[in-house]
Amino acid sequence: MPSNKSDVAEVRAALRAVGYTVLQVQPRVEGLSGSRPDVLAWASNADGELVPWAVVECKNKKLRQPELVLPALEGSQDLLGTFEHYAVVNGQWFKADRGLRVLKPVDGPTRPEHGSRGLVTDRSLATSLLLQRLWFEADRLRNSGVSADRYFPSGDVLTPPRDRGPGIELPDGVFMPVRADVLWRAKQDALTEFASRGRYREFSSPPVLAAAVTALVEKQLVGTVLDPFCGTGSFLWATLDRAAERGVAAEFLGYEFDAQLAELAADIGQDAPRHVRIEKGDSFLRDFAEADVVVTAPPVGLTLNDRHLLLDGSTTTRADAAAVDKCVRALKPGGRAVLHLAQSFTFERRHAAYRRYLADNFHVAALIGLPAGAMTGSGVRSLVIVIDRAEPGETMVAHLGEDWETQLGPDGPALNAVLEFINVGADSGVDPEADRPHTPGRP
Fold first, then answer.
1. Which tens digit of pLDDT belongs to each residue from 185-197?
2. Both ends of the chain: CA-CA distance in Å?
3. Strand 251-256 vs strand 303-309: parallel, antiparallel, or unpaired?
4. C-alpha dihedral over 375, 380, 381, 382, to 10 degrees?
5. What distance in Å separates the CA atoms of residue 45 and residue 115, rounded to the nearest whole number?
């Protein structure tokens, strides 16, 4: 790792002088143990795709043997497939041979063989470039005397004019074309990371949770997928990706009360591989067309201005109970809803009669208790509830601890157990109530 920023600044200036456009300082490299490469330069390959081309390690200590840097360069080559490898020691440039066995003094970096512009096909790079632009805009706002936490990305930042095609406009005005499917996923990643550091973090769910919710609805994934409280769209996007992977021709509909969030989600959805419609609106004041799947994380701790009439005939001003009611009303027969709620919904006495109504008229298939911290932006304990519009049946109850992300991750033991329980007979055509494992519990 370089001991001061001036070394890296000089290296970047030298790389830019010979034509490199996309540079990353100490980028995250999955699988690389130890320190990150100091500077990674991207350039076009012979096919016109932007790839990791050159890596530079900076040292400002007096090394008797510059070759001591070679293991770090070799690690970068193994993981990134880089073509040129440099070390800069006290301002002196050295270039490694193709076999990474020796370093020879050079005047500086050489110009990239196929040019520095190309199609971005790497998701992590596209995410990094989007974050670079987002933080540039936030810093520009800060310099004008406004808190950067108040910055909200507008559509023209994430989505350049359509006549330019899918791509990212860098802070210096350079436009980098990006493959459409890569841009679609990079927008999700960049927005999640950017929002997690600002005032909008509570409107984006953790990726592990979004993936788990998607797995819970995968067997029902068809037709219309609805998120009445979509925020930035975390649940919709994860479910949409699964539909695209499986070749399912579903359509996706989201509603969001906050106009900025609705606009942002709509901008992200423009690049989606399935039809997406995002509308601004108060979901508590509208009726929904029937949906095959509902996935959502309703607002926490909200009190409604007007009382909502629940299906059991009672009324409430509590947003969590009203949200559950809106979601199950929207389900088609055989449909499934998965909601992320505060755990208080399961024990508040005022809704005991409504919970009994749900258990007697729907199949409350699973209740997955999560610890404090699993709900972004809130310290309350939360709950994932799975409700099928089907004949009542047994409920699987799981209470997860601090390792909840591992438990609900890909092939996580808790997720696999819940999936096995709620999807009995989904593939075989057998009666789902026959020989079902018994795990007692009611909402």
1. 888 888 777 766 6
2. 54
3. unpaired
4. -40
5. 8
Question: Coil, strand, or helix at residue 354?
Answer: helix
Spatial distance between the Cα atoms of 217 and 220, rounded to a whole number of angstroms: 5
Give the distance, in angstroms, between the CA of residue 434 and the centroid of all CA atoms in the same chain.
Answer: 38
SS (H, E, C) 262-280: HHHHHHHHCCCCCCEEEEE
pLDDT band for position 29 (cuts 50, 70, 90): low
Close Cβ partners of 392 (under 8 Å, ≥ 6 residues apart): 359, 360, 361, 362, 363, 364
Question: Is the confidence at residue 378, as pLDDT, over 70?
Answer: yes
The confidence band for 160, taking pLDDT boundaries of 50, 70 and 90, is low
Nearest CA to 280 out of 230, 318, 331, 235 is that of 230
Dist CA 315 CA 19 (whole Å): 66
Token pair 């399935």 is at which residue? 274
* Cβ 383 vs Cβ 342: under 8 Å: yes
* CA separation, residue 67 to residues 50, 102, 103 (Å): 29, 6, 6
Residue with tokens 């209740």: 367
Map out the domains of the chain with their CATH numbers: 5-117 (3.90.1570.30), 123-195 (no CATH), 201-422 (3.40.50.150)
Q: What is the pLDDT of residue 4?
A: 56
The alpha-helical segments, DSSP class H, found in 273-365 are: 319-330, 352-361
Q: Which amino acid is at 202?
A: E
Considering just the CA atoms, what is the radius of gyration of the chain in Å?
26
3-state secondary structure of 37: coil
